[in-house]
Design a protein that fits this description.
- The structure holds 2 protein chains of 2 kinds.
- Chain A is mainly β.
- Chain A is 0% helix and 44% strand.
- Chain A has no helices and 10 strands.
- In chain A, the strands form 2 sheets. In chain A, strands 2, 4, 5, 8, 9 and 10 form a 6-stranded mixed beta sheet that branches.
- Chain A is globular, with a radius of gyration of 14 Å.
- Chain B is 0% helix and 51% strand.
- Chain B contains no helices and 12 strands.
- Chain B starts with a strand and ends with a strand.
- Classes of the chains: A mainly beta, B mainly beta.
Chain lengths: 117, 118
């Protein structure tokens, strides 16, 4: 597609429920990133996918968080047994995973605002 | 490891004036890229400007320019002739060009909130 698409744009869930957030990156972008942005905070790296390589999961805050990327394209971030502290905006970005230059920057989706009540 | 520091949580500027948003960074990578993003209240992250660490000149994109001082490890964003639509969060980010493991994961600062007054 023309841009990075994320769905849903907003999600309200009850504490303890599981949620799935979807990211559809730009066609041809081999790298995909998930970030979390809590209210008034910066971007916290969660997980990174590059092609068929094993993902970099070093930013996942707990084992309740997991993500997969099917066919090198669409990615799903799953949060199990949601807690109130999981409330945040979850941003997805994609890029060509090659070095420098603005042409190889990061394109972000509009995010999913998750509220756990 | 990379670190981005944005020390100004909030900035105010009068419409049509210039404003500088500060960004300092720390990295052990010999070659790297620096980015600025704008995040309006709608939430999307909009790419503004890029500076390569070996670029000889400061980057410019319309009303945006990047005051790059490599020795001081600073990459301040200058917005000239501020407009009301410039009110937003601004994030500085960096990425090593030859990272170990080959992953170009950018590191972001905590952001600066800019409010432009009429």
């Amino acid at each position: 597609g023309a841009g990075v698409s994320q769905s849903p744009s907003n999600k309200v869930t009850e504490k303890g429920k599981d949620v799935e957030l979807r990211c559809d990156p730009i066609s041809g972008h081999t790298a995909l990133y998930w970030y979390r942005q809590s209210l008034g905070q910066g971007l916290e790296f969660l997980i990174y996918f590059q092609g068929n390589s094993a993902p970099d999961k070093s930013g996942l805050p707990s084992d309740r968080f997991s993500a997969e990327r099917t066919g090198g394209s669409v990615s799903t971030l799953t949060i199990q047994r949601t807690q109130q502290e999981d409330s945040a905006v979850y941003l997805c970005a994609s890029s060509l995973n090659i070095p420098p230059g603005p042409a190889y920057g990061y394109t972000f989706g509009s995010g999913t605002r998750l509220t756990v009540v | 490891a990379q670190k981005i520091t944005q020390t100004q949580p909030g900035m105010f500027v009068q419409e049509k004036e210039a404003v500088t948003l500060d960004c300092t960074y720390d990295t052990s990578d010999p070659s790297y890229g620096l980015f600025w993003y704008k995040q309006p209240s709608s939430g999307e992250m909009i790419f503004l400007i890029y500076q390569g660490s070996y670029d000889q000149q400061n980057a410019t994109e319309g009303r945006y320019s990047l005051n790059f001082q490599k020795a001081r490890k600073s990459a301040n964003l200058v917005i000239s002739a501020s407009q009301l639509g410039d009110s937003a969060m601004y994030f500085c980010a960096m990425r090593g060009d030859f990272p170990s493991g080959g992953s170009y994961i950018p590191t972001f600062g905590r952001g600066t909130s800019l409010i432009v007054h009429p």
